[in-house]
Amino acid sequence: MIRRLLIVNRGEIALRIVRAAQESGLVSIVAHSEADTDTLAVQRADEAVCIGPAQAAKSYLNIPAIIQAAKACQADAVHPGYGFLSESADFAQAVKEAGMIFIGPDAEIIARMGDKAMARQTAIEAGVPVVPGSPHAVKSLDDALTVVESVGFPLLIKAAAGGGGRGIRVAEDRDALAKQLPLAQAEAQGSFGDGRVYLERFISRARHIEVQVLGDGKRAVHFFERECSLQRRRQKVFEEAPSPALDSTTRKALCESAVALAKHVGYVGAGTLEYLFDDTTGEFFFIEMNTRIQVEHPVTEMVTGFDLVREMIRLACGQPLRMAQEDIVLKGWAIEMRINAEDPDRDFFPSPGKVETLIWPAGPGIRIDSGLYEGYKMPPFYDSLVAKLIVWDEDRESALKRAGRALDEFHLEGFSTTASLHRRLIEDPAVKEGAFDTTFLERWLAEPASNHSNVKEVIDEQ
Amino acid sequence: MTQQEIQAPFPGMFYRKPSPDEPFYVEEGQVVQVGDVIGLVEVMKQFVELKAEVSGTLVSFAADNETVLEAGDVIATLEVSE
Q1: Which of A114, A183, A351, A460 could covalently link to A416 via disulfide, CB atoms 3.0 to 4.6 Å apart?
Q2: What is the DSSP letter of A140?
């Protein structure tokens, strides 16, 4: 059993973990940088310890400084939160070697699931579908055509040495493949000095759906899925649980595949398996696993009633899962809106500042996870996420209405936030219908705001 | 001779080089043209290039590499070319 938990993170997640620690009867200690001495997490924690200067590289990412601080404050466990060192196998190992418990899976599992190729191979072994692709580099057109049957069109020709979107060509059919393949090989050779190319199914319109799991090393259970398709620059903006795209048969298959993978690796703690979901075919494909708590975990907590952070502390201490799969029941609908200190009218430029006035929404079905308070001056060094506004209601339509009511009650003076974006977004007919994919939000933002239905309504009312 | 102060447009961390292993964008005493990058300001994980608005000689830096800046803090002094 542990007594003293060191929380190596900041912002709303540090506060979230402080709360879970206190409810679990643990002494909560927040490790913070010099720029974060006045955060709400530090104020609410039982103890605090400074681990270095403002820059994350010298504090929140500084493993020797953190281990030294953990020893100095006699911590017996370390919670990494999300981001920073939460998926560092080296950090997990260093914590273990220092004789403390890391709240997360073993370093070996973090490393295995953190490597894309190994994670894909692990998924295949566990019988979890992955994006169909050629198992090895294709040499000739004949070679490519033998793979096409399993991959299907349209497909991507990807340079083995490419990355970050470079060295990728699309082929819609056999003719295009015949034309593009030699070009792609020559280009790969020219750009990367490596002419090997792979084929992979091109899923042009996909949703990002992820499954929350908990494991104790022997057993694993799922807590259903989260829909996270509304993204900007690959950053999630708005999440919900469950997904409006799944029927009960698909939901069951998806969630059971996540459990199969978690069991296959003997997973311990909280994890999330991310999938691409193809609306047009109803197929889902595993893409990666996050071996930590996620930003959007509250929507899962709202629709299942479990406290995932408390559970992950128990699991890290070696306790078995307390629940069976049938104990986890989906109830109602939850939405999370990320409130970032960014100005939607200035291309989301960061807007750090001081909180002059702050009124949180309240009442039925509302949860706020935030480190903001009146008088707090946000440091410019870290992520711009300052609050998560989470609402629950009995169904999706009611949840969206409640989200609107919550946003109307929310009042913050001092700097711009993305709250105004959410207020417009939830009035959009496609969002109301749940009809969107991962490209939706950027296309929507590129449209003139006057095209958006709610703006018209406001104008009509005037 | 006119001198111009280059100020931080918003709070953040000031860098005089593109990455830790590279040389400074500009050395003190160096001549710069309009649009030359003289440093980076990092605010909430976004990096913004700070560019010279006039041509001239960069006389001195008031802010060292990796200094924390408030909006309006003086970063450097530039002597404007006639």
Answers
A1: A351
A2: S
Q: Do B10 and A55 touch (CB under 8 A)?
A: no
CATH number of residue A150's parent domain: 3.30.1490.20
How many CB atoms are located within 10 Å of the residue A182 CB? 12
CATH number, domain containing residue B16: 2.40.50.100
- Which residue reads 């696993």 in tokens? A289
What is the Cα A55 distance to its own chain's centre? 23
Claim to verify: residue A92 and residue A186 sit in the same structural domain? no
Cα A270 from Cα A86, distance rounded (Å): 12
- Mark whether A146 and A46 lie in a shared domain: no
Structural domain for A97, as ranges: 4-101
Q: What would the pLDDT profile of A198-233 be if each residue is shown by its tens digit?
A: 898 988 789 999 999 999 999 999 999 999 999 998
For residue A273, the Cα-to-chain-centroid distance in whole angstroms is 10
Structure tokens at A367: 């949860």
Question: Taking Cα atoms as reference points, which of A44, A45, A42 lies closest to residue A27?
Answer: A45
Kindly identify which residue of chain A lies nearest to residue B9, measuring between CA atoms. Answer: A351
User: Which residues on chain B are in Cβ contact (under 8 Å) with A383?
Assistant: 44-45
- Which stretches of A56-204 are assigned E, i.e. beta strand? 77-79, 101-102, 155-163, 166-171, 197-201
Examine the fold and report which residue of A201, A234, A251 is the final residue of a domain before the chain moves on.
Answer: A201
Q: Is A424 a catalytic residue?
A: no
Q: What is the pLDDT of residue A162?
A: 72
Chain B residues near residue A352 by CB distance under 8 angstroms: 10-11, 43-44
A18 found inside a domain: yes
Name the residue of chain A whose CA is nearest to B42's CA. Answer: A381
Catalytic site residue from A292, A396, A402, A424: A292
Q: What is the pLDDT of residue A1?
A: 80
At A457, list the tokens.
């309504």
A309 and A414 co-located in one domain: yes
C-alpha to C-alpha distance for A97 and A101, rounded to whole angstroms: 9
ipTM of the complex: 0.78
Residues on chain A touching B13 (C-beta within 8 angstroms)? 54-55, 380-381
Range of the domain at B16: 2-80
- Whether residue B40 contacts residue A382, with contact meaning beta carbons closer than 8 Å, is answered with no
Same domain, A188 and A285: no
Non-local (6+) Cβ contacts of A451 within 8 A are none
Q: Could you tell me which of A374, A402, A370 has the C-alpha nearest to residue A386?
A: A370
User: A186 and A148 share a domain?
Assistant: yes
Q: How confident is the model at residue A461 (pLDDT cuts 50, 70, 90)?
A: very low
A102: left (phi over 0), alpha (psi -120 to 50) or beta: beta
pTM given for the model:
0.90
